[in-house]
Amino acid sequence: MTIPDETETLVAGANLPVVAIVGRPNVGKSAIFNRMVGRRQAIVEDLPGTTRDRIYSEVEWRDSYFRLIDTGGLDTSGQSGYPELIRRQVEIAVAEAALLLFIVDVKDGVLSGDRDVAEILRRTEKPVFLIVNKVDNESRREDVVQFYELGLGEPMPMSAQHSTGIADVLDRIVESLPETPEEDAVATTRLAIVGRPNVGKSMLLNAIIGEERVVVSPEPGTTRDAIDTPFDFQGRQLTLIDTAGLRKPGKVREGLEHHASLRSRHALDRADTALIVFDASEGLTAQDLHIVGFAIKAKTGVVLVANKWDLLVGEELADFELDVKRRLKFASWASLRITSAKEIQGITQLLREAVRVSDERKKRIETGRLNSTIQRAMVEQPPPMVKNRRLKLLYVTQPSVAPPLFVFFVNDAALVHFSYRRYLENVLRAKFGFEGVALRLAFRSRREN
Predict the structure, then answer these.
(1) Alpha-carbon torsion 62, 65, 66, 67, what sign?
(2) What does the H/E/C string look like for the chain?
(3) CA distance 369 to 381
């Protein structure tokens, strides 16, 4: 793997063996991937070439661990455009893999495209499991023998739709791979790269890892899946989740784009921190602000990534940060970093900030310090009177992290004015940090003894 100069501290991911799924378009690769992973991660639709990027996920089976890659369909016709980009993706995946799963479709029989792919795989001199998908009944099982002609050993029947044959293949995989200690499947910090279409999300991911991991094209919305890329950064295990561009709900079309937008929301739900990419030359748009709202609702950390900042000149650059702060009053705590994915600038600083924000999100404040800080703040600025009554603090605690939750036990929660809630949040941030992290403050009424 070639690493850009600025990201020379980045090292290849955890030492799990890699298994790559390859085959012609529309033979069921993504359905098999989803069955093995145990969740619907790759978009599955009855259209050739639905998966255009390579998608990673860790798989645990019978106390063994490996990393599974789903790839775009190999089109051996030599056409230009996406098929060539997909071919490059598959070649990279095959180079990474210790074992290859070659998927064919029993309903199609042996096609010339299958023979071409088989020839490519034989040249790799890597172990190949030949998996015949869509064997949905006994009559189909009789058709499996024809695939012996591909010269890749015994064909293994499977039906991803009915989940038959999955366990047998997983057994064969873990038997064939070197044993991996459970501790190698280390906890990872998940960073979701989100943003509206065509702001440079996939280019940013490729700049980070130094290879064409995701298909990059001038066409808006090239990425349709939420694509997991495990990665080590300065000894820290990260997983970068590149997503389809998010649009406002009313502007999402049916079919693939609808699925992709839902996948982006789900990516936020499982992320520690959202890297919200926007075009610095356009500034923060209303759509960008909606995406910030999605991230806050998902309770992730928030790092705004001003991409293409190198396009700003003169006064535009001077006014840029001021305008961002003005438009982000509802999330003034969000972190901001500038990058140029095209020029590979600001990448290391961005990752350091993403790791810092993820750690802040998991920070717990000792109860004694927390109470002394809040009590002092309430003496310095007492809460306002409400109907001739004043708010009194009994104690405050932090019962949970990720995101941080602070519960204030008071004489009457109805006495908490929104402006005083904001004051207490500002006190917490001034004393304890939490930049880039949304804080949750809850107030509970409790009688004084």
Answers:
(1) positive
(2) CCCCHHHCCEECCCCCCEEEEEECCCCCHHHHHHHHHCCCCCCCCCCCCCCCCCEEEEEEECCEEEEEEECCCCCCCCCCCHHHHHHHHHHHHHHHCCEEEEEEECCCCCCHHHHHHHHHHHHHCCCEEEEEECCCCHHHHHHHHHHHHHCCCCCEECECCCCECHHHHHHHHHHHCCCCCHHHCCCCEEEEEECCCCCCHHHHHHHHHCCCCCCCCCCCCCCCCCEEEEEEECCEEEEEEECCCCCCHHHCCCCHHHHHHHHHHHHHHCCCEEEEEEECCCCCCHHHHHHHHHHHHCCCEEEEEEECHHHCCCHHHHHHHHHHHHHCHHHCCCEEEECECCCCECHHHHHHHHHHHHHHHCCCCCHHHHHHHHHHHHHHCCCCEECCEECCEEEEEEEECCCCEEEEEECCHHHCCHHHHHHHHHHHHHHHCCCCCCCEEEEEECCCC
(3) 18
Instruction: Give the residue, 83 or 100, on which the prediction is more confident.
Output: 100
Does the predicted model carry a pTM greater than 0.90?
A: no
What are the structural domains, with CATH classification, of the chain?
17-184 (3.40.50.300), 189-361 (3.40.50.300), 367-445 (3.30.300.20)
Nearest to 212 by CA among 17, 4, 390, 16: 4
Structure-token pair, residue 108 = 């199609």
Residue 395 near residue 371, CB atoms below 8 Å: yes
Cβ-proximal residues to 311 (8 Å cutoff; 6+ apart), any chain = 280, 281
pLDDT band at 17 (very low <50, low <70, confident <90, very high): confident
Q: 246-264: per-residue pLDDT in tens?
A: 444 444 444 444 444 555 6
Q: Whose CA is closest to 192, among 178, 179, 204? A: 204
* Measured distance CA(290)–CA(44) in Å, rounded: 27
